[in-house]
């Protein structure tokens, strides 16, 4: 591999940005494709979209010969805002599904090791936590505190950083008031359709455990089925 390409690929990995190394199998020539780039004129654009979603490397036949796509995507993360009963059920299921999970809640009575054993738990305000571990396109955010003082900031950050899933607990009336606040903050209303609210798949969930199943289903669907931005 060309050393400059290797350095660029490592930089993308370190910054949790997805990239694909394209290698022609006939002559070994290579190029690096970043997820954030414009691929509209690339003959492999549809293949890139599929690979960025699946994270799977492999050989692709083209009109000019076979190429091998080495896919590098960050491991998907789930940031849950709120150490509530739904979260207690959601965390172990999400970890089984392969998500790296972080729970954030400044309410130390809820965010305890006893309630979330072995979990990455941050008993602090989201503003402080996200300052050091920012959101990105391979992160899902589920806000379930029902408290605007805690939920609003991470939801706004999720919209700004193109998180692949953004969900918020609350009724349609509650969500309507939330969008009024976001509009007052200067957010583009065109972004609001990206918020899954009321949160989770519409499966008639009632208990915290059932709601957790619905939320995880929405997250997996967004990760595996949603189109890649800009592709």
From TrEMBL:
tRNA processing as UniProt keyword: no
Q: Name one Pfam family in it.
A: XdhC_C
Using the record's annotation, list all stretches that form the XdhC Rossmann domain.
78-219
> Sorted alphabetically, which keywords does the UniProt record give?
Oxidoreductase
Enzyme Commission number(s): 1.17.1.4
Class of enzymatic activity (EC top level): oxidoreductase
Q: Which GO terms describe its molecular function?
A: xanthine dehydrogenase activity
Q: Which InterPro entries match?
A: MoCofactor_Util/Proc, XdhC_Rossmann_dom
On the tree of life, the source organism's domain of life is Bacteria
Q: Which PANTHER family match?
A: ALDEHYDE OXIDOREDUCTASE MOLYBDENUM COFACTOR ASSEMBLY PROTEIN, MOLYBDENUM COFACTOR INSERTION CHAPERONE PAOD
Protein name per UniProt: Putative xanthine dehydrogenase subunit A
Q: Which gene encodes it?
A: pucA_1
